[in-house]
Design goal:
four-stranded mixed β-sheet, 103 residues
Amino acid sequence: MNNKILTLLGFASKAGKLSFGMDMSLASIKAGKSFLIVCAGDVSAKSKKEINFHTLNKNVPFIVLTDENIDTVGKAVGRKCGIISVNDKSFADAIKGGYANDQ
């Protein structure tokens, strides 16, 4: 379902436009570098709630890939992680567009 999104995340990873994990994603949000937060579906509810709180405060879009798990997302970006900050507007817009089309 999210093959386009996973492919775009892979390209963004190779381009060095992602931050991986909760701590690095929060740092990107706080620094104003994050244009989108992507979360795997099997990330804990507590982690989703915490990252969502920060995205709401800084007006950063937040999407959950409900059909994808941490392993699948990790394979796409080359690193095991469930929360990813997209730090490039073009990649973020493309991913949001792919997500909207899948819904």
